[in-house]
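Record format v2
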Amino acid sequence: MTGARLKHYGWGREGEGMSAEERSFVLGRYHAKFARDEFETIKVPRLEELVLRTPRAVPPASLAAFCTSERYDRAAHTYGKSYPDYVRAMLGDYDCVPDVVAYPRNEAEISAVMDWAGDIGASLTPFGGGSSVCGGVEPRVDGIKHKAAVTLDMRNLSGVVEVDSVSRAALIEGGTYGPALEEALKPHGVTLRHFPQSFEYSTLGGWIATRSGGHFASLYTHIDDFVESLRIVTPRGTMETRRLPGSGAGPSADRLFIGSEGVLGVISRAWMRLQPRPKFRASASLRFPALFDAARAVRAVAQAGLYPSNCRILDPQEAFNTGAAEGGVAIMVLAFESGDHPLDAWMARALECCADHGGTAEPAKGGDAHLQGPAGLWRNAFIRMPYAREFLTPAGLINDTFETAITWDRFENLHDTIKAATERAILEATGFKGEVTCRFTHIYPDGPAPYFTFHALGRHGALLEQWQAIKTAASDALIAAGGTITHHHAVGRDHRPWYDRQRPPLFAAALRAAKQELDPRGMLNPGVLIDP
Amino acid sequence: MTGARLKHYGWGREGEGMSAEERSFVLGRYHAKFARDEFETIKVPRLEELVLRTPRAVPPASLAAFCTSERYDRAAHTYGKSYPDYVRAMLGDYDCVPDVVAYPRNEAEISAVMDWAGDIGASLTPFGGGSSVCGGVEPRVDGIKHKAAVTLDMRNLSGVVEVDSVSRAALIEGGTYGPALEEALKPHGVTLRHFPQSFEYSTLGGWIATRSGGHFASLYTHIDDFVESLRIVTPRGTMETRRLPGSGAGPSADRLFIGSEGVLGVISRAWMRLQPRPKFRASASLRFPALFDAARAVRAVAQAGLYPSNCRILDPQEAFNTGAAEGGVAIMVLAFESGDHPLDAWMARALECCADHGGTAEPAKGGDAHLQGPAGLWRNAFIRMPYAREFLTPAGLINDTFETAITWDRFENLHDTIKAATERAILEATGFKGEVTCRFTHIYPDGPAPYFTFHALGRHGALLEQWQAIKTAASDALIAAGGTITHHHAVGRDHRPWYDRQRPPLFAAALRAAKQELDPRGMLNPGVLIDP
């Protein structure tokens, strides 16, 4: 990691943020939405103003070289990037501040921290980039069951260790941030092509631990499929799975740790499957009368076996909000890419599928079409969006997103019930009409991954309760309609109540038993996924 | 299931088998290979001649309607279809005969059998079609730790319960055999397209429990990816995962049971992702100077993102043995299929990849090209092959197969060391030069799944030891070269020593803990995957 340090409040590094023009665009949409000229805005406390508890633990001399209890480090590791995180940070609530932040430089130091944390009865929270939007990195510790909170920041285990160009795979350290990872692969002509919205401020280990969703709209939707083998440090020792392109030897060991959200161990390294850098691209933007027309086109494309790299649709309001359309039409951003061959046949057939469902294409011009038009506008908004929350929250605006997946037969019902339940909850919780929009982020032959965004005008002093009421109503509707509480944001602490309803109790029992075996003292990320 | 009953010894149903012409072709190859006019052939005992121990358990009246201790049922559930299974059955060794075979008709009856077996301290062996080639269904019980052996045959939980044509998925009972499954899907215009060699005599639940490898050479190589949700009966109760096209909510519950080989529970039902019936096909057969040339072409195709449904290569000897070529050339059978679009662009690019590596194509004529020429010859040999063992074993011939997967960078070394080690072991164990051939069954961007066949002239009275010596040498070489002990045949009991070396000990500990939770009495398929 280079450059300025990460913000303790907000997205990215200190000094970064939206330009005045961008802020004005984003706020303008809210002014119009809620018929307000301005919003009552409160001040976020500066780092120096925060009141942090005296650390409840001091690392021994043997760990001192890579551990700290400095104000900045503790504050910057208290929260992830969820809406309630922003609110509590804005209110100066740092009750969950870790006592110690460790920056181990190798596996031996990870093990040493685990041993020490275990000995003093502390919790241990694995921390990648800290971009969790579901309470995945907050050390919520009561001081009784866990006597202190230690956070393990993986940033010093960074780098591409080895590239196997023949098999197109690389051995990469768990703490490697997205940009550093791609930078190191570039000279080899390969790329992981895993670009979650958090790409700049998240790590390989974090992606794997949370089953992160990435660049590819179809086929390789999650990081899961790129994992060739894992190395994991647990409190019981270190394990490594075999590098294999495929296997049928027992239940997949990798899959037990993919999505384990830091409760079973820390992913120190992984062999990852890579892609060639794309040489051929075919892109198009399409307009549809309504979301469900676009959804039927997506279904046709998904079931055709064409595997677009991008096949995202935006409902009319979402297209308007992000500037991708002037309103009243649903948008599809469609793209194919290949490092090997031209994609005319693929695109031609996909466009036929779209036309069958009322899609009209604006064919893209030139090779950088994915950077132009609605596609480019939406792409840019997508990357910049996380910067908005640091000023929207102090303005009393509640904006959040949640995502799910559902089979096609139940999608329209799920969409309508979630939208209605969330809109109703916004009105009831805030007294003002809000907005709920939908897009698809990933698609499968048997169903889409719908992604919802909601906007509400909150009230200072009640933001947390208002957000919780909306979140609860949306999640209840989602689970009742048959969806998954998360498609790629992970479970963390925020989704636990619904994850518990979704997950079969006997699987929870099996997972708890596995955790008990690997983490007998229950120190790893307590409260996430299971209660040990 | 209709028609004649399954053989207690041999492949398929009573009355089935190779024609005189097929037998003569197969035996002719062995006569030539070992320069013999005939082989000393011993007689396999008839069902009536078998000596079976008196059953050590009698089911209570409440279970009597679907349980039996009849001679045929017990004998037909003693073994799978591995080479040592054939030898022991031929020698009349039925020491592992189950005491009771249960044919439950619903989940309640499965649970009732589990309760009873637990109460009397019996083992319980889940049984699909019994086609295991690695000791997966044999109740190897000592009478002390487990006081009796009960086998649970799932054939009565058969049928397609529901088809969701919109999402292209179906709810299917675990005991459904391949042909019945496809027959029921046909009127809906869909197909599971999972065609393992055992297709006719294996079940959906068995495929899932063993991570069966199927029809598609790329992309959907295992049954794993077709699983949308599972219902599992465990000794602790029944669980069901949610029907989802994708999810990021914690470690995949399905993946813990996919490949669990009956040690965690019994798969009673599954929602499976389906394919459209193919309307378009493009097929070709290609010749290459040698296996490694063909392998480099396969690598190029696999890394091009073209996803052929078939991309199998046969080394020169394998091509000769199966009649696919006259000798001296490696063969590639290449095919694309789609229910949606013509495949000219796909095939054209794949043929370019092959030409780059010395492949010369004989383009196929007409739409049923996959049934003609080398492709058709090989396909037919593939389907008929399992019938050969029932007469090759009594002729004292040792023929067996094993498969693995390896990354491309290590493939050539793995191939050469395995071939050399296996050939050496054959010579040492039998005194005669044998033969080891190789083909690819499935391919990945990061490596192939090589499949080896070996032929040896054994000696009656020593067949088991000879086979074990060869198997051990081959497996040792495979594990040392970095492969997986099984790509799609499963682990069972035969692969345990090498699976134990391949699998990280901490994963074994986690799996053991999960089993302890779901199967506290350790009754389910003891000895498979883990020692509880």
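The radius of gyration of chain A is 23 Å.
Residues 388-494 of chain A form a domain with the GMP Synthetase; Chain A, domain 3 fold (CATH 3.30.300.330).
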